[in-house]
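Homework help board

Subject: predicted structure for assignment chain

Our instructor gave us this sequence and asked us to write out the predicted structure in token form, then describe one feature. I got the tokens but I'm not sure how to describe them. Can anyone check?
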Amino acid sequence: DDHLVFQFLRCLLDQREGPHPQALLRLSPDLHELHIGLLCRFSPRQLTDFLKASQDYRLEEAIQITEQYQLHEATAYLLEKKGDSHGAFQVLLKTLKDKLSSVTSEKMSEEEGETEREEESPLQRVEGSLGDIIALCHRSSQSLNQEQRGVLWFPLLEAMMSPQKLLKGLNTRHTSEVLKELTMKVLNSMSIFIPLPAIIQHILQRTANPLTEDREPPHRGPRTSSQRTANLLTEDRVPRHRGPRTPSQRTAYPLTEDR
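My token output:
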């Protein structure tokens, strides 16, 4: 019985069990990884704590196990421990986007393999997920240059700003206000590592680009530079008005009289 094996291994490995907590018992990596898989199935909330306490599992194997059970927080922790901060960021960013999607679509997200407390609202899940990814960005930014920091913070800012345009109507006012507060939390956090003018410029560009796209005719594809030049030349040839011409205009353009 798998659950019986899980209980037995937990007694052996979990330092919090028993009246006298001790350091984790040193067993083979295979047993530690077996316990990780059983934690994924029977007690996923305790998984990350175990991963932090134990040092006797193999990283690659543990990553594969947590990915199999879609336990994203644990996977991100292991990737960061491995030194792949960007990979950890991508995992947490996708998790955040999924939870934001459940908020904007007014549906409860049902993520397979990941247990959520029933009393948590979708907005609380977003807030918790956002806290995880902000903490990761803080830790990672300490050792990154300016450009590398932007690769983390700007996609996070975009992820928080994009869903807000989908919220319309009075019944979404509370959700909109909460998301704005959480977006301000991102802005305050990233301003520690990224100059404020760069943040403002990014927001202005993001605001301006959709307007530029809306000005293009809906039935046309993106115009090339030669097409734009041709259009400008065509526009310059179009007369501003077609009223009666003066004698001087008739003299300047005699051929047009014949047409």
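Reply (TA_rk): Your tokens look well-formed. For the description, you could write something like this. The CA atoms of residues 242 and 249 lie 12 Å apart. That's the kind of observation they're looking for.
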